[in-house]
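Task 17 of the worksheet. Students: predict the tertiary structure of the chain below and write it out as structure tokens. Keep your answer in the requested format; marks are given for formatting as well as content.
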Amino acid sequence: MSATPDYAKKVSQPKDCKLIVEKDVKIPLRDGGVLYGDIFRPDCGNEKVPVIMNIGPYQKDKVWIPPHDLEEAPNEYMNWETLNPLWWCPRGYGLLRVDTRGSGKSPGKSEPSTMQEAVDAYDCIEWVAKQPWSSGKVGTCGISYHAAFQWKVAGLNPPSLKAIMPWEGRADQYRDQAYHGGIFAMGFLAAWHNAQTAHHLLGRPRQYNPDAFQNDLLWNYMRNDLDSEYWRAKSAKWDKITVPMYSVGNWGGYAMHLRGNTEGYMNAASKHKKLRIHSGSHFHPFHSEEGRMDQLRWFDHWLKDNDTGILNEPPVKLQIRTGGNLKGYPYRFENEWPLARTQWTKFYLKIDREPLPDPDGVEGELVKTPLAKTASASYPATSGHGHNPAGGMTFETPVLAEDTEITGPIVLNIWVSSSSEDCDIYATIRNIGPDGKDVIEAGQRGEPQPGVTKGWLRASHRKLDPEKSLPYRPYHAHDERQWLTPNEIVECRVEIWPTSMVFKKGHKIRLDVGPRDGVGTAHFSHYSADYNIGATNTVYSGGDRETYLLLPVIPAK
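Model answer:
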């Protein structure tokens, strides 16, 4: 997109308007409570403007200092994971930022990521729509937490909510964030919870809200370790979401947000919906000129009745990664997700040897021919080696004879047993270059990230929901534990989160299968339960134990 595209001339152009800033506006709620918000809006005479709102626990008053290479300049109104008023208000938009209950300036009981928060967001939307300067049309936009709330409030269908744009937003609080395949994703959650508590109790908010962010989030998350109404009330209800929706994901978000964006696109009841998946950090694409143009075209269409041509384009816009470009990749439009021309290809796990403590050890191959005889190999649930620091086993394709595009969801169908009552399966897809090293991508925090995507499953959670499972995306019920008896062999279908990668000629596709976190985990680590201690896990492949990786191979056009 080097030349100025035609649609750039059709979107709202900036006007030289005075910026009106209203701080700590009191917003009444239906139960008699109040929240506090900040309003940013243009003073353009008597012209009424639409509003884009967000609600979150990150303190509306906390100025975000962006990295030096962000495409939007720092200013006193920048706030973490939200829109920049100095760009949006001159283009004829009002912005509303709200502190959730028990955070920032807002009083009340802190209840992060709950239905109460969605009800509060509904009340904020309807309140701001009735302000005398408002056109009555409201949209929602923001990253991460400021995306996740959108799924829930959209399911309540506030009359004034006309469009949403959840940018990298988890949607199923159990499957996307808290329990990956039934394994507690404690690393990020514990760090996030402790950081937010510290920001409130050891930072400036303590001066005016000394009881802020008081909740038993981690205890409750661990207490409710199976799926239940506790989690459904915190999650999207796809059949209730009918508002126009632009779901925006990140290929690097394979441990929290990406699944929500693809599930949202596939399952929401909205008549008008789009999907975009990019790469890079959380914040660089959001604040890029290209990203802002997508945002502006979307909201100009739904909040201003301005035909920006965005609905004339194919509904799916994907960055197709070709490996190692930390600045991003070109986009390609598609008509559906997953892609209709996908060649679903099974790569069978051929076991060549038992795992050895060899830093260059590869235990097996990924082959396209089914294996006649069953083979097996065992590994301890608590130790690793060089190629796969998670332990377990590593499988590779032969050196690729041509570029091979993998774009879509992935499944690992695997037969396992354990000497214990359970078995944790961690699957990591890696892009191995001719030098034998991982090809590095940009992580969600802008950090160097090895690994392409991941999947997880605790074997006792292997039960599937037959109504929601798809051949390329298993859906686990997580409503009971089917414990293993020692050395009982069971079949598990591991959901590996969607990805896009062109594995170049001369590279290898590598699969790590292990009992714990390995390459590319970063801050999204998991809690290993005590039944892993001293246990031995075994993988079986071949004969009537079909163990394979189902990959979405996209043929070259």
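Marker's comment: The first strand starts at residue 18 and ends at 28. The chain has ten helices and 25 strands.
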